[in-house]
Each structure stands twice: as C-alpha cells, then as structure tokens.
Amino acid sequence: MKAHDGMYIDGAWRPAAGQDVIEVVNPVDEQVIGTVPAGTAEDVDAAVRAARAALPGWAATPPAERAARLAGLRDVLVARADEIAETVTAELGSPLKFSQAVHAGVPIAVAGSYAELAAAYAFEEKTGNSVVHHEPVGVVAAITPWNYPLHQIVAKVAPALAAGCTVVVKPAEDTPLVARLFAGAVHEAGIPAGVFNLVTGLGPVAGQALAEHPGVDLVSFTGSTAVGRQIAAIAAGQVKKVALELGGKSANVILPSADLAKAVNVGVANVMSNSGQTCSAWTRMLVHRDQYDEAVGLAAAAAAKYGDRIGPVVNAKQRDRVRGYIEKGVAEGARLVAGGPEAPREQGYFVAPTVFADVTEDMTIAQEEIFGPVLSILRYEDEEHALRIANGTVYGLAGAVWAGDEAEAVAFARRMETGQVDINGGRFNPLAPFGGYKQSGVGRELGVHGLAEYLQTKSLQF
User: Fold this and answer.
1) Which residues contact 277 (CB under 8 A, 6 or more apart)?
2) Is 245 a catalytic residue?
3) Which of 91, 173, 212, 245 is catalytic?
C-alpha cells in the first residue's frame, strides 16, 4: 500500500490543502492498494488559477508546436503502456489483457490522433469577405469517470490541448492512480507548467468546486445522467459551456436476415466487456419473434463461457446496485437464463454474467442503465416494432444493427435516435464522433468533432 502525496498544479507536485485521503481499493481482493489526497475547494482554486495564468501563452503557441507536444505525450504513454495497464488492472479490476489492449491502447491512439489533428486543422478559414477564426474556449474542467479511467482523461485533455485550452482534471475517486501516472507523463512530455493540472478528490467536494469555479470556461463531464443534470444547472447559472457524455441503454437490433449466431455472440461479448461498465454497451438485444428462442439459447451459452473471467465491478456499492437490478428483473417477471444475483466468488466485487429473456420494454431492466454484466433480450414483431423499442428510452448514446444486407442495416440505423451505431459489428474508430441524443448528453468526443467542443468561433469582416 502506497500513500501518494500532493496535487499536480502549475507543473509540480504540491502539498494538498487538507489532510484527508481517499483509499484506493483493488476490486478483486478488496485490499487497499494506496491512498491519494482528498482535494478541497482550495486545491481546486489553486489549479484553476494556474490554468488561467498559463492560458495566454499556450493559446498563442503555434498549432504545430502544440501538435509536437501531443506527439511527445503519446510517445511517453507508449513507453509506459505496461505500467498503465497494470495500474488500471489494480484499481479497476480489469483483466490484464483487456487493460493492455483497451485501457492503455485506446488512449495512446486517441492522443496520437489529436497530435495529427492539431497539425492539420484549419484554425482560420475565409468565407466571403470574412475570416473565421477558431480559438480556444479557455480553461477546461475535465471531470472523468472510473470505467475507462485513462481513456476518458485523454479524450478530454488531448483535444483541449490541441485547441490551445488549459485544463484541470478531477478524476474519479475509485481510479485516481492512473490519473497520477498520466500527470507524470504530461510532465515528462514537456507540456508547459499550468497547462495541465490534476486535483484528486470526491465529486461533491472537488468536483462541485471545479464545476462552480468562475475561472472555468467549459466543463467536460462523463458520468451519470443525474450528476450531468446538476453540472448543467451549475453551468447555466454562469452561462458556461458544457460537454456531457452521460448514460446509455443501447439497443442491439438483430434483423431477420442477419447471421444470428454471430450477432448474438458479438452482442453478448459487448455487454460483458469491461464487466458491463460501459455506457455505450448494447444492453438490450432485440430479436424477431421467429428467432427469439434460438437467440436466447445462443446468448445463455455464450454468457456461461465467461464465468468470472470478466473481472469484478469497481466497488461494493456498484456490485450491490447491479445485483439489485437483477433481483428487480426477476421480481418484474423476466426469466433468468444465465447468471443471477448470487455472488460467483466469496471475495471481490464480482457479479455473474447475467442474461434475461422474456423482457418487455416497460420493465426496469429494459429502461434504466444497470452498468454491469447484464443483458436483456426483447422480442419484436416487425421492424417498426423494433424501431419503437430501440428508440423507447430516455437515452440515445450508441447501438448496433445486424442484417444480411448492409444497406438494410444502414436504413434501419438512420432511423435510430442515437449518437453512434455499429453496422454488422463495425470496428471502433477513434476519429468518429462519440456522444448522445436525449438524456445521453450534449456535445461530442473524439476526432475533429471532439476538437470543435474546445473552440470558440470569431469572425472578422473586411
């Protein structure tokens, strides 16, 4: 167990204002593996002041130089990839192979993509008798979740730095160790003092102080819809820009012409990935009535292969929350075909990979985000019915469509009220915009659209 001291503010580790600490617990064995300072409003104020002081110089730095700094940061992350993966595995419980491929690999790809974008982006353009100038929005508050702890930091910090903004990050209290590792990488990459700052702490204390701070120009938050509403309300009081990536209840629509076995197996794998702790997970599988029983059998068999190999959920509260949803599904009449609320292990925050059949669209497990390894399979009568089910929640973050003919899948996907749809198992693209419709949020991350969130637009008329 290691006690980690200080906050990364103005290019150096400096003592925290208070004495309180946050314990970091390994979800596999429930042992404390470290502590970090619990930041206060005083720490947040120091970090924001440092970011404001650094803003003019960084904003004036030529985009090519900002791009070079980001490329250097990517290179440091590459060199530290093993340490990143091991750290995420320790504090999140993710299996090491998944941490290597996703928790380390994806942030490296995203950092590299913004190094390239910063160099290539047209920060000025001519329109008629005007020059349109894109300039940094200012100081960014980045409040990040625990489920993809480094990716969510990089997906905010990299475009902000590419745009010329300065940043204060408040990472999730469950996974602050990889955030501290990232701060070290920023320092090693030679990012100027004050451009990036890190304050660890609790959401209701440090997070709220950061969102409320008058020196912050934009709040970028990823997390629950409930907290997103609170941040939006705070920002509205100051007419402050927000980017919110919130909850999801994504539909995996399997049309009758699809390769049923492939669609079901990939769908189950998607839900079980990261122990179900993915806001964009396809947690509702929609299957035509004529193929329903076969799909249920395939899904049950696929889920049974996972056992507890998917790793635990992040903490005891989340474990109990997920089990509570499973119990509610049973109580409301859904049929368990795999898993259940019983603990698969005596130690650790494990939840059994769970599949429900006979789920109706009005059930709680079909409407609310569970954030665990739980799949609901719903029956539809025809395409219009499937579309009504797919669009029938308050969320709209992601989804999938499978069909024997790609054009058929695309036609259906175009009518889905969601920000991103995978066609026949389409691959993740770090350049494609990611974000939600409805209560899944506002704004976009990744690629050029993610960069645009951190820019103001000014027109000069001649």
Assistant:
1) 146, 147, 313, 314, 318, 371, 372
2) yes
3) 245
